[in-house]
UniProtKB/TrEMBL annotation:
Assigned keywords, A-Z: Cell projection, Cilium, Cytoplasm, Cytoskeleton, Flagellum, Repeat
Compositional bias ranges of the Polar residues kind: 46-68
Domain of life: Eukaryota
GO-annotated cellular components: axoneme; motile cilium
Region named Disordered: 1-68
Pfam family, one: MORN
SMART domains documented for this protein: MORN
Keyword Repeat: yes
SUPFAM superfamilies to which the protein is assigned, alphabetical: Histone H3 K4-specific methyltransferase SET7/9 N-terminal domain
Native species: Brachionus plicatilis
Protein's recorded name: Radial spoke head 10-like protein
Keyword Cytoplasm: yes
Length: 324
């Protein structure tokens, strides 16, 4: 009986045998990649239909804003000269000289007809220094105040450089606090921040207010950049958000535009929650509420529009839907 002949493997079988095995990690990665390619773009119908919460309020007044940043200008309480060293003309102080006043103050600079007039430096007994213009025995023109108080290094002194009138900061000037990072650059009226100005609260210049001031308070229109990165732009009254304004919470992707009262939402307004950008478009999916607010909460009549197109229109009470 002839021996059996073993059949040769088919080409397909040879191919399978010779084909290198895939690494398990590569197979897993390829599988995940295919899953991602198969996932459809996000749409409004994919968004979970729930009522979004309001973002946490920025403080009405943050700690950095409560730092003592304004020093009063000292007054020329006594101009009785006890001793004088310098030029004279016909018995009067004239030209350059140095006067020692009753009470301990010292002036060194220009005189005319016996009084301080021109450029000079005045030092008070407590260490406060003014250097700049004098007119008819008054601090008027342009100059620099330094609140030294006879202590600390020059870097710790508070300073003002700018326009002055009758001893007061008046016009444009820059104040730098010696005991904090605060800098104010703007307009003044008789010693107080008044008009347009910018107050910087940190060393990097990221936290600041720029806008209107009245009597050292934010009053009128202004922009506040908070340490968190959030921004408010709108009206202010007595240092708080009050009137029409817009808040952008960049850390929460939320915005509110509407009425404010004593620092919080109160009155008619619109709040938006940006959820995700729709693929291949410049538009974002969002939930939105338009209606009444009370003490920072949705309260009264309002409409809530969900990102998937459905909406609730009716009454709200303390941030919760309450009937129709």
């Amino acid at each position: 009986m002839p021996p059996k002949v073993k059949k040769s493997a088919s080409k397909d079988e040879d191919s399978k045998k010779n084909k290198p095995k895939k690494n398990q990690a590569n197979e897993d990665a390829e599988s995940e990649s295919n899953k991602e390619e198969l996932q459809p773009p996000i749409s409004a119908n994919d968004v979970y239909q729930s009522t979004s919460e309001l973002s946490k309020q920025e403080p009405v007044s943050s700690p950095e804003e409560t730092v003592q940043i304004t020093y009063e200008e000292p007054v020329l309480t006594s101009i009785i000269v006890e001793n004088y060293e310098g030029d004279k003309d016909k018995g009067l102080f004239e030209g350059f000289g140095k006067a020692f006043y009753k009470g301990g103050s010292i002036y060194e600079g220009e005189f005319h007809l016996g009084i301080m007039h021109g450029k000079g430096t005045y030092i008070w007994p407590n260490g406060i220094i003014y250097e700049g213009d004098f007119s008819n025995n008054e601090i008027t023109g342009y100059g620099t105040y330094r609140w030294c108080f006879n202590t600390g290094e020059p870097s710790e002194w508070s300073t003002y450089r700018g326009q002055v009138l009758k001893g007061k900061r008046h016009g444009h000037g820059v104040f730098k606090s010696g005991n904090s990072s605060v800098i104010y650059d703007g307009e003044w009226n008789m010693g107080k921040r008044y008009g347009k100005g910018k107050m910087i609260y940190d060393t990097k210049g990221l936290s600041y207010y720029e806008g209107d001031w009245i009597n050292n308070k934010k009053f009128g229109w202004g922009i506040r950049h908070y340490p968190s990165g959030n921004i408010y732009e709108g009206m202010w009254v007595n240092d708080v958000r009050h009137g029409e304004g817009t808040m952008r919470w960049f850390d929460k992707n939320q915005t509110y535009t509407g009425q404010w009262e004593n620092g919080i939402q109160n009155g008619l307004g619109e709040h938006n929650w940006y959820l995700s950008r729709v693929e291949m478009t410049q538009y974002s999916l969002r939930n939105s509420y338009f209606g009444n607010f009370k003490n920072g909460k949705r309260h009264g009549q309002g409409t809530y529009l969900y990102a998937n197109g459905t909406k609730y229109e009716g009454s709200w009470q303390n941030d919760v839907k309450h009937g129709w």
